[in-house]
Amino acid sequence: MVSEQELREASDAQLVVAVGRFHQGALAEAYRRHAGAAFGLALRITNDRALGEEVVQEVFLRLWNDPEKFDPARGSLRAYLLAQTHGRSVDLVRSESSRRLREERGARRDRGADYDLEREVWNLTLAEQLRDALGALSDDERSAIELAYFGGHTYREVAALLDQPEGTIKSRIRTGLGRLRSTLVASGAIGSGEPWLES
Amino acid sequence: MARELTPRELEQLLGVYALDALDDGEERAQVELHLDRVPSARSEVAELREVAAVLASSGSPPPPAGLWERIEAALEAEPPRLVLPLAAARETRARRGIGIRVAAAVAAASAVAAATAALVITDEMSRQEDRLALVEAQVGGDGTRRAALAAMASPQARMAHLEPVDAGAPPGVSATVVTMPGGDAYLMAEHLPRLAPGRTYQLWAMTGDHGDSTLLSTAILGRRVDVVAFHAPGGSLGFLITDEEAPGATTSVRPRVLAGEFA
């Protein structure tokens, strides 16, 4: 049996191999590393703790049942789990999206244009690197990414919310994410290893 | 919108695709087709998802209390192991269908159910081995080799060298098994030829007394073997590898390829 110490030191890929061997401790360790981020994301999208918990449970059960779906050649375990979390959360909220869209439009009008990622950022070095990276984006790019990713909206909805052409939103999201990536790679936040792992 | 998008338009959609911000429709289907065909597009989506993961990782709250316990309970409630859906279904059908026929028929039916159960267990085992092989092929690779080498360097490790049983084997064919006290074990094969489709290597542990040993199936190795992690049964004396028909045998009647005992 593998010790807790060994699990703590195992790479994410090794954890997934152990999950493939039905090692519950390995799943628990993957949960310890990534469930907080998954829950935070699900909560921001669904705005509902019960739904958020349901999504996280589903995502980790899926990792347990189909670990081979994770392909390390296509990114980190965290990015994989968060993509699953995002997809599932969005599925849940889009079924009622037209109602939400109306509400959101009203809310944005009420609070003005301060829909701001930066306010949400408070964590350690990663947060600092992210804050710097976000500083490199225009407000328009930030709003578009924020509404699409954390708001769970489609780009057409984002275009309607921001009253911009759809083509503009598509390219803002792509160029904005691309610029974020360059800055994050330059600051070492991504590109080599997984900086968010607690040691 | 049934119009076919140009490659440039498809590329423009990669950012919104990475954020799940496409409708589930024609556009999404076209982007996915594009991703299947164009590796650089796949890398871009993977890279942008890493960026999204960083966005989501900043300032995440701790997961809610009790959530892990609920997940764990769900694992226990439906463990992904040795389920017998087919056998159970047959048994139910047998019970429901011909309840009024003679006792002999009932006996026959339960014999069928038992045979089916055995078959399903074997199927299920091979499904699990497949899952394992898949995960390890994809994720394991170097990690497993590193772990195997680390185990080899451990003073607690026991090693068995497996040599060809047949003198006519190709030169250089051999394997090493390393086991650790808890049963974690690794097989490292050298130059084992790739098998034809429909065949698989299978690893067996020799247990019991030297004069009278029993073979326990330990792992289905697939057609090509490099480094494999497995669990060695307690009391193993040595190991051997056979060449079986896929998905492997419960009792081997096939000639042995490699065999060796602990040094």
Categorize the overall geometry of chain A. globular
Q: How many angstroms does the end-to-end distance of chain A come to?
A: 22 Å
Count helical runs of chain A. 11
Total helix count of chain B? 8
User: Which strand order does the major sheet of chain B show?
Assistant: 5-4-7-8-1-2-3-6
**Rg of Cα set of chain B:** 25 Å
Q: Uncertain segments of chain A of ≥5 residues (pLDDT<50)?
A: 109-123, 192-199
* CATH T-level fold name of the largest domain in chain B: Immunoglobulin-like
Structural Rg of chain A: 18 Å
Q: Based on the structure, what is the oligomeric state of the protein chains?
A: heterodimer
Class by alpha and beta content of chain B: alpha+beta
| Helix content percent band of chain B | 40-55%
Walk me through what this model shows.
The complex is a heterodimer of chains A (199) and B (263). With 199 residues, chain A is an all-alpha fold. The two termini of chain A are 22 Å apart. Chain A folds into two domains: 1-95, Rna Polymerase Sigma Factor, Chain: A (Orthogonal Bundle), CATH 1.10.1740.10; 96-199, Arc Repressor Mutant, subunit A, CATH 1.10.10.10. Chain A is built from eleven helices and no strands. In chain A, helix 3 (24-46) crosses helix 5 (77-94) and helix 4 (49-65) packs across helix 5. With 263 residues, chain B is an alpha+beta fold. An eight-stranded antiparallel sheet of chain B has the order 5-4-7-8-1-2-3-6. In chain B, strand 4 and strand 5 form a beta hairpin. In chain B, helix 3 packs across helix 4 (39-57) and helix 6 runs antiparallel to helix 7 (103-140). The relative contact order of chain B is 0.09. The chains are: A mainly alpha (199), B alpha+beta (263). The interface between A and B is large, with 83 and 56 residues.
